[in-house]
Amino acid sequence: MTFFYPIKQLFLLYPIQLIVNSIKLPDDLITTTQEVEIFDYFTAKEITKQQVILNRSTFSFLIEGTKEVFFDNSKVTIDNTKFILMKTGHCLMTESLSTTQTYRSILLFISDETITNFILKNNIKQSNTLSNNSLYTFEKDDFITRFTMSLMDINNLHPSIKTKLLQVKLEEILLYLMGIYGSDFIISLMTNHNDHTQKFMRTIESNLLNKLTLTELAFLCGMSLSTFKREFQKHYSQSPIKWFQNKRLEYANRLLQQNNKTASDIYFDIGYDNLSSFIQAYKAKYGVTPKQHNKI
Q: Within a 13 Å sphere around the CA of 113, how many CA atoms are in the beta-carbon half?
């Protein structure tokens, strides 16, 4: 059974919004409530920016296809040479099929209590340079490949045995990653950032050049669209559409001046879906076309 539904991507510069049903993970995949859960997710349907509410921290070991994930302050794209660890919260997921027209990922869901117990058991201390990332990317090596295969085998065992083994396997992967990357990523999973203003502004600033709709940004902030617009006006004294357009045009101006770029080189990357719209907006702001500006 597939829980994801494809939607058409719309750029932020256009106010049209889509009504998208968010999904909750692992709730919409698994009915049991063990501290560590595994799900072998397979689909032949692509999804684009599905709204996902993660109720547990989650490893995603990609087997086939590619995955793109947006969080409030992080965005990554991975193929099956990498895997990711995601913190609880709101995110947008895009899943693209492999050349064999399939997508497969082994998902490992971890409760907060399990992470806390691991931190206490191993006497892990917070460093002075702890980041507030919601998303961590790791390289897949031979150990991780074998580890992923073992998860697939464990998933076929009797539930009582599977539950016990998954506790052991979780310690195995966390200890292995600690040995390579340090322990900050584990502490970060349990670090709450309750300053809603900081999260709101961090989400806006981090996604300045990402092609997200207002609805998608509001979801990342954990807000309704109407609340998001009110908050935006309060903090930035402009509508979101106007603010993003000005910031992107200012960025385009810097690219044209400093990097010897042309309008054709940059219009798509800064959020316009056609060249003529970009040129028109640029001229309205600066009084000249990008080509004319290059000659000044």
A: 5
